[in-house]
Design brief:
By secondary structure, this protein is an alpha/beta fold. It has helices spanning 16-25, 41-49, 91-111, 150-167, 193-202, 221-233, 251-262, 290-293, 302-314, 329-333; strands spanning 6-11, 31-37, 58-62, 74-77, 117-123, 172-178, 207-210, 215-216, 238-242, 249-250, 266-269, 283-284.
Amino acid sequence: MGCRAMNVAILGSTSHIAKGLISRFLERPQFTLHLYARSTDPVHVFLAQIGKEAGDRCVVHAGYDDFPLGLYDAVINCVGLRAVGKEKVDYASYFTVTEQYDNLILDYLRDRNPEALYVNFSSGAVYGRKFSAPVGLESRFDLAVNAVEPEDYYGVVRLNAEVKHRAFARLRIVDLRVFSYFSRYLDLNDTYFLSDLLRALLENRVLITDDSNMVRDCMHPDELFGVVCRCMELRPLNRALDVRSARPVTKNELLDYFSAAYGLRYERRPALERSSITGRKEQYYSTYDSLGEIGCRPRMTSMETVQQEARYILAGKGSPAQTADGSGPTERARGLADCRIRP
């Protein structure tokens, strides 16, 4: 699937998801990127890592003062907070940071460029923090209004942003609800299960994990890029979409795979202390095929995504043109989600 020539602004361009998008946009000459970040050094380091550099097609901006002055076809909001343990969380920043950058973009659309598309990376947390079963079309956000807990904050912030976007019904805004995301650009210092697993392999030590069998859903970065491109084509567009792979993956499946393929050693213990700041999530994925409603059908499963991207990390590679399976940009482009309109 192709996209027409576009100027694209990415806010929060040092984030995990942003890196995957940047690498794919820069493989395609029809795109000009404007990358915004509080510090430009990590952006330049990443560009060098993928064999690119700042220039006419990739402009790196220090801070966000220049953002309202540009003319973009699409604005992608990847601003977020790092995953850290509960003891280090500044919960108030969930609200203030999200509002700051969301309002910056909304003001830009309203005052300068109402035809631009706003792609906001949201979260499955909009469904609340009860994930004993997957969510779906009829799911509700359940909140004890008089007993709100810190684990509720993130979901409230994300839901508030989405509802606000629906109120701007005449603007082109899409909220992409990401439940889990995994790629070769993962920060191994993050406190996610796969970060812990990969660190254990790289450090040749035993992984300590609990005895739960959680379920996660990771769309392949190529297919996520395909969804973004599809949204760029749609007019009108003001809605949220649940980001899904062809099939989710269980923790047991991941442990079995990495044990067989890489010799992972692990020990399971009951009732380990959870470090999640958004609550316990046994089955953190959606059955709502909202992507199908815009003509997108992911082809790759979560397991295939993890296998490909983890192979790259465990090989100790940076980010040359080839992917983990040895395919180059042309072959990889064929793996984009099938985003044809349904007949």
